[in-house]
Amino acid sequence: MLKHTSQPRGVVRAGIVADGIFKLALGAAYLIACVPLASTLGVATWVIILAGITVALVGASEARLASRRTTRTFLVSLALYDGLWVLVTVAALLLASAGSPFGGELWLGYQIVAAATLTATLLTGVGRVN
Question: Where are the transmembrane segments (predicted)?
Answer without folding.
Answer: 21-38, 44-61, 73-95, 107-126
